[in-house]
């Protein structure tokens, strides 16, 4: 068996086109574009590239995108003041603080400071709580879990009654994607590094979501024949074909798993591109909700 590849790049283009049309309608109705403000503290190379891509993506769909770059030594109080200013700015619909933050800044306090209605990352406890009680329609859903669900919907798998295993229990991916799967009536297991006989647990899955952050941890003998495999991991490892250089791999050993799975996401080109598209969706959704109040 050779798995069907779930191409996140192609799906992301479709989502962005829909968002662009929605933004144009919003501008006609309200006389302004939805606004996404992204804050980065420090000069982490990967974070700098990622935040620039977010700003660029917002501008490409007609939003007002702004990137606020703060030096590494920025104090927590200064960052919280910026967030407060953006909370009170009616032209701002989405606020995103790029993680990780420098060690001297309390990330939890920063997340709590963001207005939940502008929390387009979906990390605020108010949004997490709405998701936990089954009211995703009232929440801003975290972008990566939202991307996973779009990929599953387009894979054609029926989630009702299906066995789903999520490997990883983070607040950013593992827990929220489990809640979304439960809302679609899947039977969900959250597994992790301390799960006994983890490969056997994964083999039970009709849907396997790997979000553990360990390069190619999920091997072919962890995958049930015909399962849908969603690989959230993005890991940089040495490239044996090019000494001194690196390559990107997921949490799943893609080449071997693709021989047993029914459908699988590649890395790169799977969940990643769709995550940014879902960020744009969240920003437009926030703008619509806020304009209706």
Rg measurement, Å:
19 Å
- Low-confidence sequence ranges: none
Structural class by SSE content: alpha/beta
Q: Kindly state the mean pLDDT as a whole number?
A: 95
Specify the biggest β-sheet.
6 strands, parallel
Order of helices and strands: EHEHEHEHHHEHEHEEEEHEH
Question: What's this model, at a glance?
Answer:
The protein is an alpha/beta fold and 293 residues long. It has 10 helices and 11 strands.
What does this structure look like?
41% of the residues lie in helices and 16% in strands. With 293 residues, the chain is of the alpha/beta class. The longest helix has 23 residues, at 8-30. The termini are far apart.
How does the SSE layout of this entry go?
Elements: E1 4-5, H1 8-30, E2 35-41, H2 45-60, E3 64-70, H3 76-88, E4 94-97, H4 107-113, H5 125-132, H6 143-155, E5 163-167, H7 174-183, E6 187-191, H8 198-203, E7 207-210, E8 228-231, E9 235-238, E10 246-249, H9 254-257, E11 263-264, H10 271-291
Parallel strand pairs: 1-11, 2-3, 2-4, 5-6, 5-7, 7-8, 8-11
Antiparallel strand pairs: 9-10
Helix pairs in contact: 1-10, 2-10, 6-7, 6-10
Can you tag this structure with a few keywords?
single chain, 293 residues, alpha/beta, 6-stranded parallel β-sheet, 10 helices, 11 strands, 41% helix, globular
């Amino acid at each position: 068996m050779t798995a069907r590849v779930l191409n996140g790049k192609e799906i992301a283009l479709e989502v962005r086109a829909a968002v662009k049309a929605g933004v144009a309608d919003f501008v006609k109705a309200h006389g302004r574009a939805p606004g996404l403000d992204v804050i980065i503290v420090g000069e982490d190379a990967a974070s700098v590239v990622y935040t620039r891509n977010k700003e660029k993506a917002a501008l490409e769909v007609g939003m007002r995108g702004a990137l606020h770059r703060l030096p590494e030594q920025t104090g927590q109080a200064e960052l919280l003041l910026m967030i407060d200013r953006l909370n009170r700015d009616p032209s701002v619909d989405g606020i995103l603080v790029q993680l990780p933050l420098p060690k001297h800044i309390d990330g939890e306090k920063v997340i709590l400071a963001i207005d939940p209605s502008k929390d387009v990352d979906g990390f605020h406890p108010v949004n997490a709580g709405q998701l936990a009680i089954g009211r995703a329609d009232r929440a801003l859903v975290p972008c990566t879990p939202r991307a996973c669900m779009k990929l599953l919907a387009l894979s054609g798998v029926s989630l009702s009654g299906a066995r789903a295993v999520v490997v990883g229990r983070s607040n950013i991916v593992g827990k929220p994607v489990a809640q979304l799967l439960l809302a679609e009536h899947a039977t969900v297991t959250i597994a992790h590094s301390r799960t006994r006989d983890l490969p056997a647990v994964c083999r039970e899955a009709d849907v396997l979501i790997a979000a553990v952050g360990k390069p190619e941890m999920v091997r072919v003998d962890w995958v049930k024949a015909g399962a849908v495999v969603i690989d959230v991991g993005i890991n940089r490892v040495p490239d044996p074909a090019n000494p001194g250089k690196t390559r990107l791999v997921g949490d799943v050993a893609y080449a071997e798993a693709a021989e047993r799975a029914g459908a699988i996401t590649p890395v790169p080109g799977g969940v990643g591109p769709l995550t940014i598209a879902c960020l744009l969706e969240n920003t437009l959704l926030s703008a619509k909700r806020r304009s209706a109040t």
